Every structure is written in structure tokens, then in C-alpha cells.
Amino acid sequence: MSVSRWIWWLGVVLAFAAGMALALHWAPRTVSIPAAAQPAASAPRPFVAPPAEAARRVPGRRLVAGA
Q: Residue 56 falls within a domain, yes or no?
């Protein structure tokens, strides 16, 4: 491969790298994520009611079926 061909391919690779660098540099400013898709950092966790047998459970005792 001649020297001019090496220089040509080097220019192609550098141009591609520069284009990718610019794309990655400008992407956060031009692409916005909808607010609904972003997890809220301070959102309260939903309340989950305990199962019915947990309300009858006495600390230190095992739950007996049918009791």
C-alpha cells in the first residue's frame, strides 16, 4: 500500500473519530429524556399492606395454620 493510501485512510479514521466525538459531545444537549422515564430520587415508596397472617402474628411465636 502506498504512502498516499495510508494518509487517505488515516484521514478517514480521524474524520470518523472527530464526528463521533462531536456527536457524543452534543448528544446530552440535544436529546432529552422525558421526565416520566427518569426515576425520581426522592419519591416515596408505595405503601404495601402486610398480609393478613402478619397482623395475627405474635412476636416470638410461630404461625400455626388455622389458628
A: no
Task: Dump pLDDT digits (tens) for 1-47.
Answer: 788 999 999 999 999 999 999 988 877 666 666 666 666 666 677 77
Rounded to an integer, what distance in angstroms lies between the CA atom of residue 55 and that of residue 6?
Answer: 77
46 found inside a domain: no
Number of domains in the chain: 1
> Domain range spanning residue 13?
1-32
CA distance 9 to 17: 12
Q: Whole-prediction pTM value?
A: 0.40
